[in-house]
């Protein structure tokens, strides 16, 4: 009993520390974007050179250590000892990250790896050495890559089914060159029922596009749990956690919408806690594939 209380106490302290550590890492991310000098845990300051990169690699290494420590502490708090009870029969969570790759991709990968969780990245076109490298890292870590269109430009892609498929094929081509395969899973920018497509393509455009997507052998996925991380430029971390927790209640299969975007720093902060809470609610995690559970706002 005494040991139990002490262990719980340690976990609580761990969580408080980890919250601070995550906050600190994020502070550094914000600071880097704003080209300000980040405040370090040690009280020292790191300088930023004119390119915006920290001049000290040891400082960067320290920040990485902080994130890893935060992940470990959060994981222990929510999942308990290594041989905790197995996931509840049949409850499955598909975490999805849209719009990457970005400056946050590697950090998201690190969190997922630390929890042993596989997810799905609905990526857009990023034909640079860094973009190509990130596609490869996502695939090499065992996650699924899905097509989210090359340009993500509503006025271009939703003009017609032909315009949409041209854009999708352009990304397929890039992914085939980099990771060696063309994804057969897809997410529409804005979701299958978005109204922003009406201006370029008319009111019935999404049905027509969805029909062609299916005819060409793709499966498309909307979501039944939104993290709400797109509801504000930088959504409050606790709003993200609460949104996922409450929307997943009572559901057996969930597809969780999140974003892999440089400015979505709170999604990254929320991620270890979101995973921990879903695990505690009995969910196991998997990546999407063509025959997975799907959730579609609109069926063609
Ligand atoms: Zn998107």
Concise synopsis of the structure shown:
48% of the residues lie in helices and 10% in strands. By secondary structure, the protein is of the alpha/beta class.
Topology diagram in text:
Layout lengths: L1 H32 L23 H23 L12 E7 L6 H11 L4 E4 L5 H12 L3 E4 L6 H4 L3 H19 L5 E2 L11 H4 L3 H11 L3 E2 L4 E2 L10 H12 L4 E7 L5 H16 L3 E2 L15
Parallel strand pairs: 1-2, 1-7, 1-8, 2-3, 4-5, 6-7
Helix pairs in contact: 1-2, 2-3, 2-10, 3-10, 4-6, 6-8, 9-10
The protein binds zinc ion.
Word description of this protein:
38% of the residues are buried. This protein is an alpha/beta fold. It has two domains: 84 residues; 212 residues, Glycoside hydrolase/deacetylase (TIM Barrel, Alpha-Beta Barrel). The N terminus is likely disordered. It is 48% helix and 10% strand. The site of zinc ion has 5 residues, from loops. Zinc ion (ZN) binds next to loops.
CATH architecture of the largest domain: Alpha-Beta Barrel
The value of Rg in angstroms is 20 Å
Number of helical segments with 4 or more residues: 10
Largest sheet: 6 strands, parallel
Task: Sum up the structure in keywords.
alpha/beta; 10 helices; TIM Barrel; single chain; disordered N terminus
């Amino acid at each position: 009993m005494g040991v139990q209380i002490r262990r719980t106490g340690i976990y609580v302290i761990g969580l408080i520390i980890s919250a601070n550590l995550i906050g600190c890492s994020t502070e550094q991310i914000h600071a880097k974007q704003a080209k300000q000098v980040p405040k370090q845990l040690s009280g020292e300051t790191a300088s930023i050179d004119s390119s915006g990169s920290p001049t000290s690699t040891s400082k960067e290494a320290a920040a990485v250590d902080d994130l890893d420590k935060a992940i470990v502490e959060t994981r222990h708090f929510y999942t308990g000892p290594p041989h905790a009870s197995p996931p509840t029969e049949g409850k499955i969570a598909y975490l999805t990250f849209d719009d990457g790759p970005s400056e946050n991709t590697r950090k998201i990968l690190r969190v997922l790896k630390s929890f042993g969780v596989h997810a799905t990245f609905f990526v857009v076109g990023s034909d640079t050495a860094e973009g190509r490298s990130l596609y490869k890292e996502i695939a090499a870590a065992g996650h699924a890559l899905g097509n989210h269109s090359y340009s993500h430009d509503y006025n271009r892609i939703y003009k017609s089914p032909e315009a949409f498929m041209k854009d999708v094929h352009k990304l397929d081509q890039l992914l085939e060159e980099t990771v060696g395969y063309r994804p057969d899973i897809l997410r529409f920018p804005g979701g299958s029922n978005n109204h922003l497509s009406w201006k370029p393509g008319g009111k019935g455009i999404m049905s027509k596009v969805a029909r062609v997507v299916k005819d060409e052998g793709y499966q498309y996925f909307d979501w039944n749990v939104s993290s709400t991380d797109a509801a504000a430029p930088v959504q409050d971390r606790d709003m993200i956690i609460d949104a996922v927790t409450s929307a997943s209640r009572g559901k057996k299969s969930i597809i969780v919408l999140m974003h892999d975007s440089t400015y979505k720093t709170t999604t990254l902060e929320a991620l270890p806690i979101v995973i921990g809470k879903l695990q505690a609610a009995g969910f196991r995690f998997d990546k999407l594939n063509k025959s997975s559970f799907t959730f579609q706002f609109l069926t063609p």
